[in-house]
Specification:
By secondary structure, the protein is α/β, with parallel strands linked by helices. The chain has 6 helices and 11 strands. It starts with 7 loop residues before the first strand and ends with a helix.
């Protein structure tokens, strides 16, 4: 960030079926935010750049005015992660902006904290194929940072060990919520929104986690996009 200048950030996430974009401009100690949310998935690649341009125009900013670009790096949809990373790199290269690849599960935890006050969160995102991406995060109010308690896991919903008193936040309820051992009081709907990325960005910048455009990568947890016909047949046979 340029010394003595207000922080100006662009953030976006296309890791789920939702397209989320936000521009934040810190003024007088407060962050003014312009945001856009819409259906993502296959539409994200065609909508992302025009909507970024529209939000920047609303904020009265050019790309060159920004201090950094934050994007949801994963885990999440393979296509969505590639789209976000490629667009972030393309935008950053021309004006030499640093990039902040943000853990999407941490962004889920931050969204849950922002909306409910939860500071101990199991973040869970639908990974399809009957599995979830999951990790546990604890918030430290003193440092205003999240600490991940273990590596991000790809697992069957039944394998998620939910700690007593912790929130379980994410988007996995419709697909496999009945398989997650969490009480109704623990369950929260939350997505890795662009505004959550904005709230995380200043801490990530301060911690030196920005990277050059050519160093930014998506975070892939699953190394296979689809199961083979033989694998699916074997699973059906094992379950019968």
């Amino acid at each position: 960030m340029r010394e003595n200048s207000p922080m100006k950030l662009l953030a976006f996430d296309t890791s789920t079926e939702s397209l989320s974009i936000a521009v934040g401009w810190q003024r007088d100690g407060h962050m003014a935010v312009w945001q856009h949310t819409a259906a993502g998935g296959p539409l994200a690649s065609s909508q992302l750049i025009p909507q970024i341009q529209a939000l920047l125009a609303q904020a009265g900013l050019r790309l060159a005015d920004l201090d950094a670009i934050a994007f949801g790096a994963g885990p999440g949809s393979f296509t969505g992660l590639r789209t976000a990373c490629a667009v972030a790199q393309g935008l950053a290269f021309g004006v030499k902006l640093p990039l902040l690849p943000v853990d999407t599960l941490m962004a889920v935890a931050e969204e849950a904290r922002h909306t409910t006050g939860a500071q101990q969160v199991h973040a869970v995102l639908d990974a399809r194929m009957g599995e979830v991406y999951a990790a546990a995060y604890q918030y430290d109010p003193a440092s205003m940072r999240w600490q991940r308690q273990a590596d991000i896991a790809l697992l069957a919903p039944e394998a998620l060990v939910v700690q007593a008193g912790w929130a379980v936040a994410g988007n996995a309820w419709a697909a496999c919520g009945e398989r997650i051992a969490a009480s109704p009081a623990q369950r929260m709907d939350a997505l890795p929104t662009a505004t959550a990325l904005l709230r995380l960005a200043s801490g990530l910048l301060a911690d030196g986690l920005a990277v050059a455009a050519d160093q930014a990568l998506p975070l892939y947890i699953r190394d296979k996009v689809a199961k083979t016909t033989d694998e699916r047949a074997a699973e059906r046979a094992a379950a019968s």
